[in-house]
Known about the structure:
By secondary structure, this protein is mainly alpha-helical.
Amino acid sequence: MRPSPPLRRTGVVFFALAEAWIPRAVAYDDASAPDSGASYAVTPSPGVAPDAGGGPASGTMTGPFLRIHDGTSAAQRGDMTRAEHAFADAIAMAPADTSVALAVGSAYYGLGRVDSAIRTWTQALAVQRSPDLLFNLGIAYRSKSLFAQAILCFEEVVTASTPPSFDALFQLADTYVRANDSAKGLEAYKRLTTLFPAFAAAWNDYGNLLAHTKRLDAATAAYREGLKAAPNDGELLFNLGRAQEQIGDAAGARSSYESAVKFAPTLSEAWNNLGVLYDRMGQKSSSLAAFQHASQARATFVNGRFNYGVAELRRGHCAEAIGALEAATRLDPGNSDAFTMLGESYLRAGRTSDAMAAYKRAQQLAPGDPASRLGLGLIALQNQNYDLAMSLFNEAIALNPSDGLGYLMAGRALLARGDVAGAVASSREAALRSPNSPEVAMGLGAALERQGALADALAQYERGVQLAPQDVQNRLVFGHLAEKLGAYDRARAAYQSAIVEGGGEVEARERLAEIHEKGGHHDLAASVLVDAIKVFPGDGELKVRLAEVQYRQGKYGPAEATLQTALRIPGPHTARAHYLMAFVQYHKGSAGAALKELDDALALAPDMPEAYYERGEIYAATGRTDLAKQSYARAVQLRATYTEAILGLERLDEKTGP
C-alpha cells in the first residue's frame, strides 16, 4: 500500500501596490525539497501616470498604464512587436516611477516572458530599490530555479523592515527549503512562527521541514501549534498523523487521520493514509472503504486508485480491482507497479492474454523489477510450459537473489512438473531468504504436504497464518490439513477466525458446519449455516447445505421451506435442491412428487448418478421393476463403482429370475 506524502502550503502575499499569488501546492515527496509549482508575478492595478495627478491605485487608466494595457492586448493577439513598443513607451513616459516598471514586468511575467520581466525589474532597481520589485524578482528567479538570486532578493526585503513582513519571511523560508538549505530554512521558519504564531500555514510548512530532517517530535509539536490557530485544519491534521505514524504512534495517527477526513472529507491523501493504517491494523473492511473514498474524492489521485485496486484484489473482487487499477494506469502510464498488479488482477479473472500484456508493459517500464517476470512465469506455469516458467523464475532470482519469492515460484514449477524433492529444496531456499514471508511459508507447506510430511506442512501453514493473520485463505488451507490429520479443534479454530477476519467467508462457514456434523453436532452446524445465510442471503448453495442438515435432524418442514427459497435463486445448486426435495416429498408419503423432483434434477444435471439411483429405489418400492432396472443401470453406467446401484440390480434380478 502506498501512503501519501505531506501537504504543504504557500502564502498569499499583498503589497500596497501589488499582489503576488503563489498557488496552493500539491503534495511533495519526503525525499526531495518541496515545490509549490509555478509562481505568478504581481499584477498591479492600472492607474494614471504620476505626472497626470494619479497613481496605480487611483482606478483610472491613463498615460503609461494605458500603454501597458495596450501592450498586453497586443500580446494576447500575438503581436509581441507592438506589445514591446507599448511597454517601452510606458517606461519612457515615467522613467522615475518604479510602479510603472513593476507593472510592465508583471505584464511580461503573465505572458510567460520571465526573462523580460527580470530584466525590466532589475533595470528599475537602479532607479529605486523597491521592496515590491525585489519581492517580484525573487518570485521570478525562483520560478527559474535560480535560488541564490531569489534568496538575495527576499533577504533584502526581509531586512527592509522591522519586524519583517510575514509574506517576505514566508517566501524566504520556502526558498531556502527549495535550495536544499534546511538549516537556514529551519531558522527562517522558527523566526516566522515566533513573530506570527497565529498563521497555521507557517506552522504546517515548518512541521514538514522538521519531519523532512527526521526531527519528528519537533514536527508534531509544530503541527500542534498550528492546530491551536486552526483546530479544524484538515491538512495540518493529516501531516500530524503522518508524523505520529512515523514515530510509531499508530493510535494517535489514526485519530489525526480520522479528524482530517472529518473536517476535510475531500482530502484524498488523508483517506489514503487512513486506509493504509487500517490495512496494517487488519481492519480490512475499513481499509477498503477508506481507499474507495480516496479514489472518489479526487479522480486524478493515483495512489487512491492503486491502493483501492490492491485492496479489492486481496478480497478476490477482480472486477473492482481491474477497474481501479486500469484507472491508475491511465492516470500514470509509467507506473510499473500498477501494471504489475493489473496483470495479477487479469490473471485471477481468467483474462490471460490481458495479464500477459500488462506484465510485459510493467517489464518495459521497470526492466530491473522481478515482479513482472514472476507474473509472466506464472502464466507459463498455468500453460504447462515448465521450461519457460523456470527460465522466467530464474531471471527473477538473478535480479533479486536475496528475495525468496523467485525460489518459491521455482518450487511451484518443480512441484507441477512432479519433482517433489526439488520443489521442497527450492521452497526451503525461499524460506532461508524470506523467513518472514507468509507466501513462502504457505508454499513450503504445500511442497511438504505433497511430499507426505504432513505434520511439517501443518507447521508451515500455521506459520503462514501467524505472519499474515488477516489472510483468510491461509487459514482455510491450514484448516483443511488440520481436518485431514484429525485435528478438528485446530481446524475449527482456524475456520472460526477466518470468519471473523474475512467478515463472513463462505468456505470457512461451510467447512466449520461440516466439522460440527462430523462430530454429531447438527444444531451447531445448522446455526453456522443460518448465520452464513444472513451474511450471504443470495447464496443458494448455502441454503441447500442447511436443508441437508435440517433433513438429517428430522426437521422435514424447515428443510422443505429452505429448499423452496433455494430454488428461487438461479444457479448450479438448483439440481441438488430438487434432488434433496425428492427425499422430503418421499418422507411425506408422496412417491409421485418425489419422482417429479428427481426428474427436475436430472433435467438440470443429466449426469447425476445419485438421482438415477434414488429414482430406481422409488420405482422398486412401488413395484415398477423395469423402470427401476433402467434407473439402476443408468446410475452404474455413469459410475461403474456405484455399489448401491449394482446391488439394486442384483436384487431385482433375483426377484425376476427363473
